């Protein structure tokens, strides 16, 4: 039977953990759905804002607050903006895997998914000279076979599931495991800010103040239960000046809390791995079972 | 002619009633629409958060404030998470019927609907050892034949209609009746919080503060007319830390109001039944009548 | 060439006018789109809330503040709830035309539209004993032939256009005219509150405070230009307790402003007619003209 | 490789620039999608509000604050409302190009797009007696061939891209260039206010206070990085009384900032042209490249 993830011990007497993560989707967000979006010069420029303007601004911001973070990068973004991705790594941040063209893996066979995973790995290794240890499924669509594919490739952790606010060891067929650092839709800037005609959103765009209210409340909530707060921001969205200013207020606040361990995803995952937790199994639901 | 539900007397000199209800849809919310959603590991984990994390958190919260509540549970949720559902019952809360796989009953024949009702009843009885007395239609889609099916199965009450803020005896063909405890869309957390790609929502996710403002205002409104405030929350949504904190503020407030009877749905329904009200008929509209 | 509507003089030295109007759509809102919605017992109960609960509550509210208003009523609502509609009229409010089954007139021929107009007229006359003088197109979809059909039937005014905040005489082929009292989407409660699955809305439901902020700001704006503030509320939506409380705050405020003439639509229309304004022509756009 | 736009020097020791722009779409917004919308009298009146009421109100507002601005005008709007467009020009504001019938250029061939550009140019020249120097793509859908078409026709600037908050010289095949003044979705009133059934929007309409909060925060953000704040408003939306009042508050604030150069788009573009910047190339993404 599926059981809940248990609270974990945090290092240095901390009571909770936090990581500000950034998905550098850039053009891939649209191209992974249809490469025909490449014809739309304005839509492409909207996405290019991420690596061109958003990432440098966010790097400055993280530097000012001495925060180490994790950037999930589709392979195509690394190919198209190698200097940008190297600048992230050079600033001491983690580069993690986010597909090649931000492909939805939903419904893909293991073989098809493996091809994309390898293409993304190659791109990131070629550009940064380092093999990533973390993965986040594009559109947060993990298949039941995905954890095994990640373990095959030596990944330490995944960050695509939503069933806990504590990280855990995710059992793979009871034989192996991978660290899972869970996320959720409310801790994502896409729902608050993203409008791209003929692609995403109903048209509504929220105020940074509203987004910060949701994220700030959830930070306090997750801290109160000793969990791991993982915020997902996209440089093409949250790199805009006013959103970055409001995000900075939140980062300043979180980074000044003595009981919170603010670090990168790989540091969290390594810590979890070191706890030698009993892996947790998640059963695929089958309504014909009963 | 259809006439409005009249205000009712509340016990112990109370001026209004209130119940915080929880729909433990879990995976069924998606599987009842298409079992293919079972392939989506992340989406399933988003739903599993309800029974795994949300329910225990909500049970603690209700315990802290000494509040008895009602949980509407699809049969499949009881089959998949029997310990969770038993823990709810063991804490003194009511388990009520919410379909088997959260199936929309819209357009089903009476026979088809009866099969689902019985399957759900069997699941809840098997898991909890008790036959539920209350029903809420999945997606709040009641058919005109549904009340008769519920009466056939000995249900005391239904909670799926929206034409009043006072409970009433709903006449079934003028011969029998069932207690109806009405609800409404604005007193539901789904509209405020639920985003599941390729399933539900336009993408927008609201702040718990906004949800609490709507619910708090409506509580005062319903109290002022002596009605019955029924809030519907989903553990996979409102079980998230910050939402639970804000919900707790509302529960604390409501539970501290001397003129409000805060209790379970079955207690409210039993009280209504004891009033021996004249059953109220609702005429099916037929625009060809005139 | 189409020219703007000019500001008008208001009686008694008032600087602006205001009317709180109510569209008693009830079941027709759905049935006019498809009569199959009649099978949905919950959805029908959601609409029945309007005449059963919302209208009496609003009548009390208007009475408390001594405000005379206008209710736009589809013929089918009058047929199904004759006592409710007579109670509105008996309280001194105006009953105006709003289609028979809230049919969208978009794309209908003049003959088809005429049939519906007559059916609605008959229903209202039969139920109230009075012939309505005002019309509002269901879904605010006026056809270019509609004003002529209304003039043929002796209507004094229409309230379905959005090109001004001052009422005007709308020229009909340069020979006749009808008073137009313009409205707009932002002064409607549907956009803020209406969620009916498989029928209307993206799922989002707003707080009454937000709705009141929009309406209150626009009241001040329209007052500042000497216009006519027309708010459109639906009893099945704004009749809910908290929404009615917030609406009452606005009505209390508006009714206490000495420089604002708060009255019914027919009173406003009669005043406009008495000004003997030069009718204003609106040209149908034809992009092939140039 | 595509590189980011660099900050620019502003004249008179200013630290940032700002322009309040207005897209006078009027009926074209709908007709460009389908001329059948011309049959919808109410929808057309909603759009006519822009030139008839919104534009004069905005002209007054700009005059009160001594602000010079830019109005992007589809050719059809100029044909249908020549006096309105001439009044804008006579007040000293810039008239710029915005298609003929607000056609989406997405997927059009260069030849098809050229025909529309020329038709729009002819209309504006005929009506105002002046050839426009600026262009904004309808729906902000620029094609990769569009900048060349604009350069062929002698345009000084375009304002349709989203990859920067600093204006730049956009290289055209490395041989020519056009000034680009970038914009973005969050600085547009359409997303906050526009609801037109069967055409645009999910139904939600926001409060002017919320829109002003987003725009005010982004103004501060762009000022802090020395960029160019370009707000896009539509007279049929932001010309409504309360929205105009709230917009006026923002204009008053921005116009009173000593370090901000508030002017028209053509003035900004001329300044940028005078800086003799190295043109910036934007590479069309091609995921098959790697």
Automatic annotation (TrEMBL), chains A, B, C, D:
Start and end residues of each NodB homology domain: 40-263
Record CDD domains: CE4_HpPgdA_like (cd10938)
Keywords of this entry: Hydrolase
Domain of life, per lineage: Bacteria
GO molecular function: hydrolase activity, acting on carbon-nitrogen (but not peptide) bonds
The keyword Hydrolase is annotated on this UniProt entry: yes
UniProt GO BP: carbohydrate metabolic process
Residue stretches spanning the membrane: none
SUPFAM superfamilies to which the protein is assigned, alphabetical: Glycoside hydrolase/deacetylase (SSF88713)
Record keyword Hydrolase present: yes
PROSITE patterns listed in its UniProt record: NODB
InterPro entries named among the record's database cross-references: Glyco_hydro/deAcase_b/a-brl, NODB_dom, PgdA-like
PANTHER family: POLYSACCHARIDE DEACETYLASE FAMILY PROTEIN (AFU_ORTHOLOGUE AFUA_6G05030)
Protein name (record): Putative hydrolase
Source lineage: Bacteria, Bacillati, Actinomycetota, Actinomycetes, Mycobacteriales
